Amino acid sequence: MELFWQTIADYNTMTWPVQALIVLAAVVLTLLLYFRPSPAVRIAMKVFMALLNFWIAGVYYLVCCEPREHHDLLALFWAIMGCIWVYDLAVCLLYTS
Fold this sequence. Notes:
The protein has 3 helices and no strands. The protein is an all-alpha fold. Helix 1 (2-35) runs antiparallel to helix 2. The longest helix has 34 residues, at 2-35. The radius of gyration is 16 Å and the shape is flat.
């Protein structure tokens, strides 16, 4: 259990400035989606979600969780989730053009 908490602590120490930007972007996009929904905002949110899933896969699981078992499988899961967002974005762009 100590390894689990240590990897989280290492991730937070390494990436806190980027995490702050990610949270800020999430708040702005969520507010825009709620108060001024538009196709551009929906596209921006899908791009954000894809990038967020790839960030979790790459930085958190592949880099920070490398000492933990099965980190590569969890990275694969989050990368697949990112690909699903990319697919959703592609379909959205294809059918709205």
